[in-house]
Amino acid sequence: MLLDLTDDQEFFRETTARFLDEQVPTAELRRRRDDPAGFDPSYWQRGADLGWTSLLVGEEDGGGTISGHGVIDLTLVAYEFGRHGAPGPLVPTNIVAAALGTAGGEAQASVLADLLSGASIATWCYEEPGRRPLGEVSLDIRVDGDHIVLDGVKRPVESAAQAHHLLVTGRTDGGLTQALVPASAPGVSVTPLRTVDLTRRFCSVRFDGVRLPIEAVIGEVGGAAGEAERQLELAVALHCAETVGAMQQGFDMTVDWAFDRYSFGRPLASYQALKHRFADMKTWLEAGHAVSDGAAAAADARTADAGELASAAKAFLGDYGTELLQDCVQLHGGIGLTFEHDLHVFLRRVTLNRVLFGTPGDHRQRLARHVELREAVA
Amino acid sequence: MLLDLTDDQEFFRETTARFLDEQVPTAELRRRRDDPAGFDPSYWQRGADLGWTSLLVGEEDGGGTISGHGVIDLTLVAYEFGRHGAPGPLVPTNIVAAALGTAGGEAQASVLADLLSGASIATWCYEEPGRRPLGEVSLDIRVDGDHIVLDGVKRPVESAAQAHHLLVTGRTDGGLTQALVPASAPGVSVTPLRTVDLTRRFCSVRFDGVRLPIEAVIGEVGGAAGEAERQLELAVALHCAETVGAMQQGFDMTVDWAFDRYSFGRPLASYQALKHRFADMKTWLEAGHAVSDGAAAAADARTADAGELASAAKAFLGDYGTELLQDCVQLHGGIGLTFEHDLHVFLRRVTLNRVLFGTPGDHRQRLARHVELREAVA
Amino acid sequence: MTVDTAEDVAAFRQRARQWIGENLRPFSSSNTMGLRVRTSEEELAAVAADRQLQRKVFDAGFAGICVPREYGGQALTPAHQRAFNEELTGFEFASRCQIPTMSPCAAVLLEFGTEEQRRRHIPAMLRGDEIWMQFLSEPSGGSDVAGALTTAVRDGDEWVLNGSKVWTTGAWWSDWALCLARTNWDVPKHRGLTVFVLPIHQPGIEVHQIEMLNGARDFCQEFISDVRIPDADRVGEVDEGWTVGTRWMSHERLLFNSPYVTYPAGLERSLAEGSAMQIARDTGRLDDPIARDRIGEARALELVGRQLEQRLAAGIGSRRLSDQAAAIGRLYGGLARLRTATIKFEIAGDAGGAWSDDDGTAAEIGLAFLMRQTSCIGGGTTEMARNVISERVLGMPRERTLDRDVPFRDVPRSPSGRS
Amino acid sequence: MTVDTAEDVAAFRQRARQWIGENLRPFSSSNTMGLRVRTSEEELAAVAADRQLQRKVFDAGFAGICVPREYGGQALTPAHQRAFNEELTGFEFASRCQIPTMSPCAAVLLEFGTEEQRRRHIPAMLRGDEIWMQFLSEPSGGSDVAGALTTAVRDGDEWVLNGSKVWTTGAWWSDWALCLARTNWDVPKHRGLTVFVLPIHQPGIEVHQIEMLNGARDFCQEFISDVRIPDADRVGEVDEGWTVGTRWMSHERLLFNSPYVTYPAGLERSLAEGSAMQIARDTGRLDDPIARDRIGEARALELVGRQLEQRLAAGIGSRRLSDQAAAIGRLYGGLARLRTATIKFEIAGDAGGAWSDDDGTAAEIGLAFLMRQTSCIGGGTTEMARNVISERVLGMPRERTLDRDVPFRDVPRSPSGRS
Fold it and tell me: Is B241 an interface residue toward C (CB < 8 Å)?
């Protein structure tokens, strides 16, 4: 997270942090382990009141930022989500809200308003089963007169069983098309997946000849590749901010533990072999803060290197996020593997985030492509 | 190296170790940095007298083992070569001698006798330039009546500029063919390469329409794939034994250093962060001994898993050999990077061995293939 | 019956093979301890089945192969036990009656127990009537087991115990415990310990099942309040518990290699969940060079690990390596298993994070990844192994301890009182 | 001239840009210090060229931009120096007259030197007439620079120096040295040090060029025998050398960010030898997914490193992070460069071990791999960085030192006498 927030940003972050402290302490997260949604609608609505859903949407559409940099502001919420292991469809709802704010038509105005108010939630159906390069989409969106027809499977999709609206990215001839699909549309079937996470819920979503009026299309038919990439950058930046929050929390807990826990008459924090591992962890953590902030700032300013920075952030945080939390477990010993301990809440968060919207390996392939294109120009 | 050698093996190892102590102390290796061969013929001949060249050849052909397990006996020499950073074409000459002993005809009998006596040396031309899976050979060996014709390039080839005989592995139609080529044959051109090593010399060898009587073929035309694989297993096992020797020497030097060097009034060996790294290194070292010995025993006994164990040894030792020596450098600090220090002799050895006869990555691909074939059977 | 006149190993093996083939069912992981998450009812049923199975082996004369006859055993040699274990490969066995019941608990009683203690407990163990646990680790202790805070105070012919023990596998369905307790706070820590045996299920002992993050509930914690133990249930001398404790831990480290433990040879190796190659197949990455690179790496680690185990066993056996070199195998094994769990998770891709039951071997790989550090924590941490290797194998200076030469009550302890 | 009336940065930048464009040649790595292995003749020619170039910059009024006018400088601000450095990107510069001459040496003289010392040396430095070295590290010392054994003994108005210094880059062609010496063995180590300046080329100083394993001969070792220094060449108080030394090392850590150093902005980044992608191209692995994975990893490390440097600079600047947090950047940078060197070596395949000149960027990558640890040794080891991060940033207990509260002569030292 940024070291120098504005006063407004700091107040905003602090408000969300306090709200999450109250609403979703780790005991509450444990209690909700089998809750199908993982959160109450009222929780989400109160979060929307705090501004969780409006930061990527222009004021003319009912949104607004804290600092003029909505993406950065939103990463403050994401960071606190990571630090608390908080539930709620923060990433997907904001992605959909941003997409509707940018390219949504009249048909979607009321949907957007409901998303902003927290009255309804939405999710983005992007990734697909099976190995493929990140960003390769095969779900079929066919134009049939003044209708479109969707066929294919998306997974994993966050909160799909709770979402009222599904933003679906599919392929139409050579290009990408995005459509907003009511979750209740005939032909949509949602199957819960099992996950490593305790708080968030993911599903596989199948579209069997789902037929909608062409007004469901967001943006241009066959011309949504740029929007999809933009959404991917946002999703990655937000997950990275969450991951950094979870890393920070796990790290802080483990530093406290090292000072408090005595072994052979000395605190763990006095053992040089452990001290050096804490130094490594601190370095990964600060590097993680730095690149996560860099990716958020680039996505906010829509600079040319936003995609590359997002991939660098994801490649780095995917690997080092899990390594850091795993080393926190190691330093705790057996107690760090128990359900009653808080550590796994954060390990779960970074573990799942690591594989969402591209694994570190997927993003390294993207980075290589960036390097190749740049060197070809140079 | 094996923990429990027979008395004969121990005497044999010790004899070679003493000879190398005398003949090629590290100061001598430094002195020969620009020597085109890196060693004198008399050195090699005396080594042959000690038994360096005869271990993979049957008694009927003038060879003989120490323990009845010639490959294991030879790894004792290779281990001492690694521990001393010793020069001389140990690996290639033995590979060629083994090949001639197994499949050489009358035509090669005197060549083999000269290799065993140390009067002449030979090398194996196997690897080729450019990326390809390990073992894929493209040098062309064409049968033309009662002659064969060779066209292609081999590199890196050890001691090619000093060798009198070149065992060349090439492709004839669908199969592999091996031929023994006099280094003086018209059409053979040898170009020295630069290397990371100080003691050994490597070249690129070009064969331009090299024409030889068909008696030059070792074994069957088009039927040498098994022999080539066998030679590869031997080469890998011997390089692994060398690498373990170099690791042991670097490790021992660094342990001594850690006890002797004081920092802030304490020996380095008293700092837990360093102690834990020594523990890791010791573990890699013992694991390296173990798998190197395992690969040698399997190659000696020609068990079905010899190829897989060779690849496991190379994959492990390629990576951990260099990591161990690099950490020895780190623990020495700047002095470990100077030319006057001995450490780089061993770092060079493991670094070059790492990429000869397949990189660790090449051997990991081979291991995956082994797993796949086994699981297909199961 | 002496070793000379004992049945030779080949004949014993033949007899064992025949009996096993005629009487035991094929091995199934569904019933074996620790291999799956089970409901309490399922676990209790499995315990009862294990007791019956152990009784069947006992009645056939194959229980306690290395245990003296006077305690219900067969008085044969470790070679006989190995032969039995080899013949047992692929068959069911009483997993819950082996570790820690036979080793270290029975082993410690054989070495330090009174004649009465041995005659009372060891035959009961061999019949499956008594399942034992180790009351060794404590919540405050971590790697420092000699720093036990659980205290036994003498009261006439009895001792009164108070404290807490943890990481007892299956204590909630076990019968007896071997317990390390502090009997003197006024001497340095290793000199004020004593070992006892006690029944687990009695007033004053509350057994709490610990849920692990993957849902497993095998481990327990016990809260011990004013439990009274007759002095007859003391093992070894008062305040000499560390003498017992050192051997206790040495038996513990033997695991399935203990001559008192019946365990199908090679089982551990065959129990690995889906191989990296299977996961690649199930996630469509069989042709992905990166996945194959990782598969090759996992295979190399496995093969190197086997060679290392053989080298260490041979070297320790022939005294070319010190006993402490076993820590090298522990460190390698911990790190290799950790890396392999990571490789599998990486190959699984997003199915490692979110999966359906249709994902084959990729399903639940994410949970294994969450539990990854188990291999570097359980049975002594890799940090302790690194201390042992550097100090005991390489002879480097020992870490400074602040608890050696002072009365245990004066040892610095956590400011929060948590430890 | 005060800062108020100084030329503003924009105008200065404009003037600098014009002068640079009209007077300087494009940057070429062939002449720059430390970038290639050179013969002695080549190196001396490059030194002479650097002196001339420095003089040219001095004559144009662009040398010592932040140095006071009375010592030959321009008395401008760090912002002016940054602007100059930015305009210098892509142009030649006097690489051998910057570090350590201007920082830390000139910086230390400005802070602790006598007026006479400053007037004598700093203008000479700015004109390219004096090139300075640091006599700081010693063969015995490693990371412990305060443990200097080089000794200065007072003799009337003079001091007599004996000892040895090492890791002085280019001492054989340099003029003066800033030297840390022990003046009192009867007090704890930090309290018996004094700083001096001295000419390098004089009887009693033997300069030995150290050959590195890749053939480079930039580093030197000096053997100092009975060298006499007037007390006027002492810097700071007697036995207060650690006060000077602390600031000295703090200037040293600034490297190219020192306001006294002229260095083209972004140069370091552009100096990397063949990129991982170029090596992949030159070895035919451009389509190899594994090579591309590593290329992506190297790129991620580079981008993360830039973001981290910015974060640390901003945080230290705004006091949200302590100065000690710079060690985080040092550790990251060392490990990232190490990993990148390994990646390049791996991509090069067998050309990394044996190469011909036709191998393009893959040639000599093996030598860079042999030198890999340089990034984790030079300028303070990564081990020291980890100590700083854990102790000074995280506040963990300091390592026990046995040299703090005892007279330096009683500090435990190597049994072999090597250190």
Answer: no
Reading the block at residue A280, the tokens are 């490594």
Measured between beta carbons, which residues in chain A are less than 8 angstroms from residue C353?
156, 195-197, 351-352, 354-356
Give B358→chain C minimum CA distance, Å. 14
User: Could you tell me the fold of the domain covering B225-377?
Assistant: Butyryl-CoA Dehydrogenase, subunit A; domain 3 (1.20.140)
Give the lowest-confidence range in A275-284, A341-350, D270-279: D270-279
Closest partner residue to D349 among B191, B273, B359, by Cβ?
A: B359
Three-state secondary-structure class, residue D196: strand
Mean pLDDT of D87-99: 94
C417 pLDDT more than 60: no
Task: Please name the helix (run of DSSP H) or strand (run of DSSP E) that holds residue C40, with its range, or none.
Answer: helix C40-59
Q: Kindly provide the b/e burial profile for residues A348-366, where b requires at least 16 CB atoms within 10 angstroms of the residue's own CB.
A: bbbbbbbbbbbbbbbbbbb
State the smallest CA–CA distance between residue A192 and chain B in angstroms. Answer: 32
Q: How many CB pairs under 8 A join A and D?
A: 140
Please name the member of B279, B290, B375 whose beta carbon is closest to the beta carbon of C308: B290
Q: Do D363 and B194 touch (CB under 8 A)?
A: yes
Q: Which residue in chain D is spatially nearest to A360 when comparing CA positions? A: D297
| Three-state DSSP class for residue C372 | coil
Residue for token digits 């010190």? C322
Reduce the DSSP state of residue D350 to 3 states and report it. helix
Among the partner residues B267, B315, B369, nearest to C297 by beta-carbon distance: B315
- Note the ipTM here: 0.95
Q: Which fold has domain C268-393?
A: Butyryl-CoA Dehydrogenase, subunit A; domain 3 (1.20.140)
Query: Does A339 contact C414 at a Cβ distance shorter than 8 Å?
Result: no
Q: Does A272 touch chain B (CB under 8 A)?
A: yes
Positions in chain B whose pLDDT score sits under 50: none
Confidence at C232, pLDDT banded by 50, 70, 90: very high
Please report, for residues B13, B227, B360, B378, D179, the alpha-carbon distance to residue B313 in angstroms, rounded to integers and kept in the order given. 22, 20, 9, 24, 51
- CATH 1.20.140.10-classified regions of chain D: 268-393
Q: Find the residue in B nearest to C330 (Cα).
A: B283
Measure Cα distances from C343 to C307, C369, D269 in Å: 21, 9, 33
Q: Was domain C134-249 assigned CATH 2.40.110.10?
A: yes
Task: Find the residue in D nearest to A278 (Cα).
Answer: D390
Q: Which fold has domain A7-120?
A: Butyryl-Coa Dehydrogenase, subunit A; domain 1 (1.10.540)
Q: Does A190 touch chain C (CB under 8 A)?
A: no
Residue D192: CA count within 13 A, CB half-sphere: 22
CATH assignment, B123-218 = 2.40.110.10
B267 close to C (CB below 8 A): yes
Average pLDDT over all residues of chain B? 96
Residues of D in contact with A255 (CB under 8 A): 394
3-state secondary structure of A228: helix
Q: What is the pLDDT of residue C196?
A: 98
| DSSP for C262-280, written as a single string | ---TTHHHHT--S-HHHHH
Of B67, B92, B75, B98, residue with least CA distance to B16 = B75
Say whether A189 sits in a helix, a strand or coil: strand
Q: Does the beta-carbon distance from C399 to A265 stay under 8 Å? A: no
CATH fold of C9-96+118-130, please?
A: Butyryl-Coa Dehydrogenase, subunit A; domain 1 (1.10.540)
Sign of the torsion angle spanned by Cα atoms A292, A293, A296, A297: negative
**What residue segments make up the domains of chain A, in order of their start?**
7-120, 123-218, 225-377
State whether residue A272 sits within 8 Å of chain C by CB.
no
Predicted TM-score (pTM) of the model is: 0.95
Residues forming CATH 2.40.110.10 domain(s) in chain D: 134-249
Q: Nearest-CA distance from B324 to chain C in Å? A: 15
